[in-house]
From TrEMBL:
Protein name: GTP cyclohydrolase 1
EC number: 3.5.4.16
Domain called GTP cyclohydrolase I: residue spans: 8-185
Gene for this chain: folE
Family membership: Belongs to the GTP cyclohydrolase I family.
Gene Ontology terms for molecular function: GTP binding; GTP cyclohydrolase I activity; zinc ion binding
GO BP annotations, alphabetical order: one-carbon metabolic process; tetrahydrobiopterin biosynthetic process; tetrahydrofolate biosynthetic process
Species of origin: Thermanaeromonas toyohensis ToBE
Binding of Zn(2+), residues: 77, 80, 149
One family name in Pfam for this protein: GTP_cyclohydroI
Annotated GO CC locations: cytoplasm
């Protein structure tokens, strides 16, 4: 699959005409090209296979929680093609000491955020990919995001956050492990 840049440019030009703008005026003349180029960047995840991202593994005798939190992301809501953005927090427990490079986890998140998305699906996709490609014993993903479709249109409630979570494997089945992971993600102290 490749992006049809010419088609995107024509569509943007038609949108500008449809809202009563002159796409040939100085400030808008290059807008269709700029939007097409932007779409190639913000939807690049459509051209990427998540399996290719999770290829680097290391052997380290560690079968305890690994938490990466406050990972910023930007995505586009598939309902209105408006941005939603926030932070991804994730934790996983390696299986038999098979750990993945931390940057690979972040790159994996980007594969899914750079697609037309729903936050609920995004959360599930990240968790499922880590279970499948890293073969983790357990995974937890928590996403906090602000949706521009709720802040600049519709109900107009800026600052409101949507929080979603997905929990898999031993982190789903073991309440104490799940509580520990959530505490570490939120920065809470747990009794040891």
């Amino acid at each position: 699959m490749m992006f049809e840049v010419d088609k995107i440019e024509r569509a943007v030009r038609m949108i500008l005409e449809a809202i009563g703008e002159n796409p040939d005026r100085e400030g808008l003349r290059d807008t269709p090209r700029r939007v097409a180029k932007m779409y190639q960047e913000i939807f690049a995840g459509l051209l990427q296979d998540p399996a290719a991202v999770f290829t680097v593994h290391y052997t380290e005798e560690h079968e305890e929680l690994v938490i990466v939190k406050d990972i910023p992301f930007y995505s586009m809501c598939e309902h209105h093609l408006l941005p939603f953005f926030g932070k991804v927090h994730l934790g996983y427990i390696p299986r038999k000491g098979r750990v993945v490079g931390l940057s690979k986890l972040v790159r994996g998140i980007e594969v899914f955020t750079k697609r037309p998305q729903l936050q609920e699906r995004l959360t599930k996709q990240i968790a499922d990919a880590i279970m499948q490609y890293v073969r983790a014993l357990g995974v937890i993903v928590v996403i906090e995001a602000e949706h521009m479709c709720m802040t600049m249109r519709g109900v107009k409630k800026p600052g409101s956050l949507t929080v979603t979570s997905a929990v898999r494997g031993v982190l789903h089945d073991d309440e104490a492990l799940r509580s520990e992971a959530l505490a570490l993600i939120k920065g809470w102290r747990t009794a040891v």
